[in-house]
Amino acid sequence: MPFISDTLARVKPSPTIAVTNKARELKASGKDVIGLGAGEPDFDTPDNIKAAAKRAIDEGKTKYTAVDGIPELKEAICRKFARENALTYQPNQITVGTGGKQTLYNALMATLNPGDEVIIPAPYWVSYPDMVLLAGGTPVAVECGIDTNFKLTPAQLEAAITPKTKWFIFNSPSNPTGAGYSRSELKALTDVLMKHPQVWVMSDDMYEHLVFDDFEFVSPAQVEPGLYDRTLTCNGVSKAYAMTGWRIGYAAGPVELIKAMGTIQSQSTSNPCSIAQYAAVEALNGPQDFLAENKKTFQRRRDLVVSMLNQAKGLTCPRPEGAFYVYPDISGCIGKTSAGGATIDSDEAFATALLEETGVAVVFGAAFGLSPNFRVSYATSDEALEEACSRIQRFCAGLK
């Protein structure tokens, strides 16, 4: 009798974590590696947030808390939704988890039965389909290519919905493409969803504060109030507040769903770190002025990376509306051979050869469900980005 569960055969380890770990190992061995794989801001957590965590320690706030979040944090989250998204929630409609990933996972575990389908626009964050599989559901990927700027069209959404569809996972701005849906684009999708009352919406708003130029962020329940009672609006402090390691995510939705998610959490991790929760209260309630400064930095980096990658032979790099990723198309490189003798027959082969021959670590597009592409995270210094993009240019120029 096999010891490892059959469930594990349905999923794979996170490719983004694998690339990041590989880059760390190579660096530790003395290699000159520039890692562009991690979706993690290079800024430090703001001082006022760190001070709030220290106060929590000094005040002895180091015990177990309520399973799905302290009252102070739930109240802060309610104020955030009202202030920034024109969405009204009560504390019993809020859940707090150990990072945004846990809130998504809890919701899927609490709602999916065998045969239930979950629509996921591709390219997608690598964890979406695997979490659906772990929960016993069936992921339904819908490819959204460069011709639609990696965005799902209403016709595609309509065609993907079946009587078995339970969830539609929506992520704007997107990981891995940075593509953001305008209000009118999102309204066209919500119009489709209004015709299918069995379909719930899981909106992953993690990159809400990282939008550029004159782009306006909007969330599904904000655009279409008719979806409020079947939308789980998910967010967290990781990206905007540079708190990735603090592991605090949250979500808002109908009371029945929030209770079910709490039941899952009570039998898995129990409460998130008490100290991190008090830090998150300060993040949401405290000064927000640094968000605009960080956004300016990311926008400058986006413009640098898009410009340099579009100068690389065989690459096409769309200019995204938000997040801190670009997702260049490498169609012009497929079928060629690298200067080191590697055959570039896929985006995975491209990323492998790029790392081995130039020391630049990126994540191949197949991991996100759409090829031939690769993802660059530009959440690192301008100097590192300029050097990495120069190496990519040389690598592409050397393809024969």
UniProtKB/TrEMBL annotation:
Alphabetical list of InterPro entries matching this protein: Aminotransferase_I/II_large, AspAT/PAT-like, NHTrfase_class1_PyrdxlP-BS, PyrdxlP-dep_Trfase, PyrdxlP-dep_Trfase_major, PyrdxlP-dep_Trfase_small
GO BP terms in the entry: amino acid metabolic process
Record key words, sorted: Aminotransferase, Pyridoxal phosphate, Transferase
Pfam family, one: Aminotran_1_2
Start and end residues of each Aminotransferase class I/classII large domain: 31-392
Catalytic activity, as annotated: L-aspartate + 2-oxoglutarate = oxaloacetate + L-glutamate
Keyword Transport attributed: no
GO molecular function: L-aspartate:2-oxoglutarate aminotransferase activity; pyridoxal phosphate binding
Cofactor dependency: pyridoxal 5'-phosphate
PROSITE patterns for the chain: AA_TRANSFER_CLASS_1
EC number of the protein: 2.6.1.-
Keyword Transferase: yes
Family statement: Belongs to the class-I pyridoxal-phosphate-dependent aminotransferase family.
Quaternary structure note: Homodimer.
UniProt-recorded name of the protein: Aminotransferase
Native source species: Albidovulum denitrificans
